[in-house]
Amino acid sequence: SQVLRLEQSRRAALMFPLQRLERHLAPGTDTAPFHLFEPGLAALQRAEALFRPGRAHAIDYVSSAVRTDHAPPPALPEVCFIGRSNVGKSSLIRALFSLAPEVEVRVSKTPGHTKKMNFFKVGKYFILVDMPGYGYRAPQDFVEMVEAYLQERRNLKRTFLLVDGVVGLQKTDHIAIEMLEEFGIPYVMVLTKIDRAGRGLLLKNVLGIQEFVKENTQGCFPQLFLVSSVEFSGIHLLRCFVAHVTGNLSAVEAS
């Protein structure tokens, strides 16, 4: 909660981990995708306010569902988070909701802990959905559950595809990307666990995935988002992007 009050250089290092890597790139490297979403302090503060509960602004777990007809009514803009089992999805969502500690986001050391779609309501503004992990220990009906949700949920504004920042894109991630591309779902890639990756490895993975996005995708936002749920790097920027894609930041604020 004190990050926004830090002096500018320390604040920027925490909020924009992608830009922190930029000075270590070779001259001539295309850095345009590093700066596509670069909100100012006012927008970051507005986004933080959305994630801070108040008397007239409740942030709550709503319900869980294994089928879309069991999901809450699609009355608000929605974002969903998907990723390989053990990619750190629940830890990331807990970090996003760190200003609302009463919201219970279960985090387990056992991969595949999330078996249902879990819906969290952020006041009157949007719904955040924690999806089951794919790959190891995925629910038996994962494909039917997730494909139906992605195809039928008309209020879904953006899908956040989480990729392990240490190991990069895996075979199961490519299958998820193919599914999102086939369905024409707009999505963005989030690299997790960046505190565990050395600078060289992280740079290699960032540039490799960035090139893959440029050459092989149509629906993926060109800028990657780097996060650490341990050091809190990139969390404020990701909150701001969620606020932006759900229509809760003006275009001027988000630019």
UniProtKB/TrEMBL annotation:
Key words, A-Z: GTP-binding, Magnesium, Metal-binding, Nucleotide-binding
Domain of life: Eukaryota
Assigned GO CC terms: mitochondrion
Gene Ontology terms for molecular function: GTP binding; metal ion binding
Cofactor: Mg(2+)
PROSITE patterns attached to this UniProt entry: G_ENGB (PS51706)
Xref: InterPro entries: EngB_GTPase, G_ENGB_dom, GTP-bd, GTP-bd_ribosome_bio_YsxC, P-loop_NTPase
Cited Gene3D superfamilies: P-loop containing nucleotide triphosphate hydrolases
Domain EngB-type G: 75-248
Family of this protein: Belongs to the TRAFAC class TrmE-Era-EngA-EngB-Septin-like GTPase superfamily. EngB GTPase family.
NCBIfam families per the UniProt record, alphabetical: GTPase_YsxC
Protein's name according to its UniProt entry: GTP-binding protein 8
Native source organism of the sequence: Campylorhamphus procurvoides
